[in-house]
Amino acid sequence: MSNLNFWGKLNKLREDIKLSDERKFKIRDYLINEIDGTNLESTYGKHTKKGIFWSQLVLSKYQKRYVPIIAGFIIVVILGSGVSFAAENSLPGDLLYLVKVNINEEVLGSLTFGVKAKTEYEADLATKRLEEAEQLTVSGKMDEETQDSIETNFEKHSKKVSDGIAQVQSETGVTDAAEISSKFETTLSAHEQILRKLGDEASPSVQSHSRGVEGKVKARLKDASLKRSEFDTNIASSDSGEQNQSKLKDIARDKINGAESAATALENFIESNKEKIGIEVRTESEDKIKLAGDLILQANDKINSASYGEAFNLAQNAIRIIDKARVLVSASTNFKLDGRLINKSNDNEDDTGEVKGIQIEAKNFRNRGNNTTSTFRNSDNGGRRSRNGKND
Amino acid sequence: MTDTMKKKLIEAYDAHSDAIYRHCYFRVFKKTRAEELVQDTFMKTWEYMRKGKEIDNIRAFLYKVANNLIIDESRKKKEQSLDELIEQNIFAEPSYREEKIFEHNIILAEVKEKMKNLGEEDQNLITLRYFDDLDPKDISEVTGDSANNVSVKLNRALTKLKQLI
User: How confident is the model over A81-96, as pLDDT tens digits?
Assistant: First the structure.
């Protein structure tokens, strides 16, 4: 090998010699764990050889079989380190994304008990995938691979939601199932519109992949809407037996209270973030709150006329409007979208009227579940907007 | 205080881990051992920082620590044959094509053969200068020598290496 050739090839070789991303992160994780675990005395010497192996045990997707066994032991360590937290914001294509979906989400899911909570958790995860799709679209990183990842995981979670709703219906009753179904439909509807808007503004290549995800959401939304209609009919014509009527009345009353709380929370949210929210969006959101208020009034009337099933459905409708407006308001601030997010012709709302607004995260179904309190409720205003004197 | 130190170390890791790896690799010519040396280097640096000792130039400090570990390593390592080096198939990452793996291994073997004929100090200087892109001033902070001495020694080492090629 000539002198010139040798140095030239050496330079090329030098460029190629580097830590792989996987190894780089594993060592980094190990360092962070060691640093966080070190108090008075160093345990470094004991861990010299074990460090990378330990990290492999924690992080390797090929060793996922270990996770259920040791989850209870490692969860504190993982959550105590920077790894889990850092992974939470990762997106498909990022190295830590595997940590997020294969470890963080699996471990948290395993700590969720009861079919209702598990179904709501799966709905949360499906929502997360759509939020990731939105971020990928905005950042221009939506491509074939990330689209495939999003779609696969979204479909997986959506199927679990669908199966879970059926199970909830048989185990705890139709109103619980209807509630989960309604919330899921709302979030799908909101995110379908957000994706469409973001896709409109994306480059052609990104748009084509984003539309693919949007298509999956549309299909699931159609199923969710059909299911919700069935539940509405089922509840409206529910058994007239005295015991059931009494129970249904309580459930309807709770639903109305929930709708009022959600409306108040949205008002508070808009008030707190009015500088970030455009005037047009704010106006549209306030219109939605008024529309929801009308539905709540009607629901109260139905309570008074002992039409508890219809009261429940009207209140549910009101919550759907509020929830969707909230998701959309949040998205407008996150993605700095101006003006109307929804084109009239594309609006897929039926009897609930148009929903124009911007995104708010309709995440964390669990917090808004049984107690019907809104995620953003932090005011003592109460919000009994629509009660009339005849309500019990 | 601990948070500040931790932040400093992790920032140093993000900035210099590749370079330290490369340095270690061209001294030990073993991928997994080089990775362990990177880990050991940063852990030893953390131990030093935990004792409350200030590090003005963390990059130079990392190289110093790595060098000390490598010297310990060289006292234990056996001679590696050319065949063993090729068999390690160090570049067998999924992204590498077969012909690239083969070419790299041949070059590595060549480099190793050349370098082993130099003394420990010369190997270190060549690695720091030509693999780590450190200038004589930076190298002087690593080795503790004056920049002038580093330049002189570097020239001698390079002359020897060129004669071997």
Answer: 556 656 666 788 777 7
- For A27, which of B38, B50, B130 is closest by C-beta distance? B38
**Residues of chain A with C-beta less than 8 angstroms from the C-beta of B44:** 44
Which pTM was predicted?
A: 0.47
Which B-chain residues 114-143 have CB contacts (< 8 A) with chain A?
130-131
Residue B35, C-beta contacts closer than 8 angstroms, at least 6 positions apart:
A19, A23, A27, A52, B21
List, for residues A128-150, the tens digit of each pLDDT value. 999 999 989 988 889 999 999 99
Give the ipTM: 0.75
Helix (H, G, I), strand (E, B) or coil at A359: strand
> Shortest CB distance from A24 goes to which of B17, B91, B131?
B17
Query: Residue A390, exposed/middle/buried by CB under 10 A (0-12, 13-18, 19+)?
Result: exposed
- CB contact under 8 Å between A18 and B21, yes or no, is yes
Q: Are A183 and A367 in contact (CB under 8 A)?
A: no
CA angle centred on A191, ends A185 and A197, rounded to 5°: 140
Q: Which residue of B has its CA nearest to A43?
A: B47
